[in-house]
UniProtKB/TrEMBL annotation:
<dbReference type="InterPro" id="IPR018490">
    <property type="entry name" value="cNMP-bd_dom_sf"/>
</dbReference>
<dbReference type="InterPro" id="IPR004358">
    <property type="entry name" value="Sig_transdc_His_kin-like_C"/>
</dbReference>
<dbReference type="Pfam" id="PF02518">
    <property type="entry name" value="HATPase_c"/>
</dbReference>
<dbReference type="InterPro" id="IPR003594">
    <property type="entry name" value="HATPase_dom"/>
</dbReference>
<dbReference type="InterPro" id="IPR000595">
    <property type="entry name" value="cNMP-bd_dom"/>
</dbReference>
<keyword id="KW-0808">Transferase</keyword>
<dbReference type="InterPro" id="IPR036890">
    <property type="entry name" value="HATPase_C_sf"/>
</dbReference>
<dbReference type="InterPro" id="IPR014710">
    <property type="entry name" value="RmlC-like_jellyroll"/>
</dbReference>
<dbReference type="Pfam" id="PF00027">
    <property type="entry name" value="cNMP_binding"/>
</dbReference>
<keyword id="KW-0418">Kinase</keyword>
<dbReference type="GO" id="GO:0004673">
    <property type="term" value="F:protein histidine kinase activity"/>
</dbReference>
<dbReference type="InterPro" id="IPR005467">
    <property type="entry name" value="His_kinase_dom"/>
</dbReference>
<protein>
    <recommendedName>
        <fullName>histidine kinase</fullName>
        <ecNumber>2.7.13.3</ecNumber>
    </recommendedName>
</protein>
<feature type="domain" description="Histidine kinase">
    <location>
        <begin position="296"/>
        <end position="461"/>
    </location>
</feature>
<feature type="domain" description="Cyclic nucleotide-binding">
    <location>
        <begin position="13"/>
        <end position="135"/>
    </location>
</feature>
């Protein structure tokens, strides 16, 4: 028995073929040997041969995805030892570039021999169809996993961006606290040198301890005018640090009427009192900045927990509003510049669902809307009940709309209008399957200026 015939018989689908059939097959095809790293076929090359892996292994990757893309491996003696163009396959070009992982021996059967091969060995037909079905299923699973990883990567990048701003602000404020404490201690010592009347001391204490209200929203010009006016008044009172004090006092919401009772003091005493007030307000402001920044970070961490539902059962009572809000938080960087409107029914019931899966649906729909809006326009997120039987979620954007010829295919797997490497075409297919897995339905209507995705999910006992 020749070495080639023996190697072909080790291929699972060929193992029981008679010698004369294998001899005929050997006469139709050709052998190829590859060193590690050598290209077996290039992406885009015509797919005209069935590849039988007799020794070694080959990996395939899409060129545009590089080393971080999905990796497919065909190895002699394993499930995918038969690859390339198969009988009944519609494959016309290789979808990826294959390279040998180790010294490899491949036998190539041209598609021109398929008809005669199936006549000589009809049992090969269902076997090769099963191989093709397994290959399609494995490819689809890999693409779904890649889509999930891409979505996670997008969220991680957005989260890093969102966390950076409050973290940086908190860090700046924390650095300023040491200097502010030093200045407050210095001001305490200066003020102690001047005995203040009870009423004046009480008024100063009230200014320092009263609840800080958010300063009114003013244009830059209006704020500058207020600061100039207060600075002029302070200078008229002989306050030496008026240019530095005026912005701090205006930021705290204080004006001339609040400071007038201090004008009864001698100028040195008033200077000491205002320096003490300014140091106290600066310290309080820095503490507020730290609280605000860390609160924002805490809120983002809470949104991550809510979005991923790592501590929840697969199916549990789910508040859809919380999932929608956490998704908006996670996608905040993509929606910057977009007007976001939330419209949730106040009596929205909880839904028995997988919160993590539904959040993947909301992520896909909102991320697509953000792409369509390009940093401007409006996104509306609605949640309400329909007739007590269904919960309806609508994601509506004011983008350019989806052309009719595209709209008919957007839920098809691997269909995408994005550039090479920008999308797998599985986001909406995954969303559709998740919704169907919850016994619901997803639909879209679109025209220029309004694209509306609707997700209907049955409530308990409904649908």
């Amino acid at each position: 028995m020749s070495a080639l015939r023996e190697a072909l018989r080790r291929v699972g689908v060929l193992s029981d073929l008679p010698d004369d059939t294998l001899d005929w097959l050997m006469a139709q095809g050709r052998e190829s040997r590859y060193a590690p790293g050598e290209v077996v076929n290039h992406q885009g090359d015509p797919a005209t041969e069935m590849l039988l892996f007799l020794e070694g292994a080959v990996e395939a990757r899409r060129d545009e995805q590089g080393l971080l893309g999905t990796r497919y491996v065909a190895r002699a003696g394993e499930a995918f030892e038969v690859s390339g163009k198969l009988p009944y396959s519609r494959l016309t070009v290789y979808p990826s570039t294959s390279r040998a992982l180790e010294p490899s021996w491949v036998f190539r059967v041209p598609e021109t021999a398929f008809e005669e091969l199936l006549c000589r060995a009809p049992q090969l037909g269902p076997r090769l169809v099963a191989v093709m079905a397994d290959r399609i299923r494995d490819s689809a699973q890999n693409e779904v996993q890649r889509e999930r990883l891409l979505a996670l990567g997008r969220l991680a990048a957005g989260l890093a961006h969102e966390l950076n701003n409050p973290a940086a602000a908190s860090r700046r404020a924390a650095r300023g606290l040491r200097a502010a404490l030093t200045e407050l201690n210095r001001a305490e010592r200066e003020l102690a040198a001047w005995p203040l009347e009870g009423a004046v001391r009480a008024h100063l204490a009230a200014l320092e301890t009263r609840e800080r209200a958010a300063p009114p929203h003013l244009s830059a010009l209006a704020r500058a005018e207020q600061e100039d006016a207060l600075q002029d008044w302070l200078e008229d009172q002989g306050v030496q640090e008026a240019p530095d004090l005026a912005p701090v006092l205006i930021e705290a919401g204080l004006g001339v009427p609040d400071l007038t009772p201090l004008a009864a003091l001698s100028r040195p005493a008033m200077n000491a009192a205002l320096r003490h007030l300014g140091a106290h307000l600066t310290l309080a402001g820095l503490i507020s900045e730290v609280e605000e920044g860390t609160g924002r970070i805490s809120g983002l961490v809470g949104a991550i927990k809510e979005h991923t539902h790592l501590d929840r059962a697969p199916r549990a009572p789910t508040d859809v509003r919380r999932g929608l809000d956490s998704t908006l938080t996670m996608l905040g960087h993509q929606l910057r510049g977009v007007r976001v409107e939330r419209d949730y029914a106040p009596d929205l019931p909880h839904l028995e669902a997988s919160a993590g899966e539904l959040n993947q649906v909301w992520t896909n729909l909102m991320a697509n809307a953000a792409d369509a809006l390009g940093g401007q326009g409006q996104l509306q997120v609605r949640a309400l009940t329909e007739g007590g039987a269904h919960l309806l979620v609508e994601i509506v954007d004011s983008g350019p709309g989806i052309p009719e010829e595209v709209r008919a295919q957007i839920f098809d797997p691997f269909f995408t209008t994005k550039g090479v490497g920008e999308g797998s075409g599985l986001g909406l297919d995954i969303a559709r399957r998740i919704v169907q897995g919850h016994r619901g339905e997803i639909s879209v209507t679109s025209r220029p200026g309004e694209t509306r995705f609707q997700v209907r999910l049955p409530l308990e006992g409904g649908g």
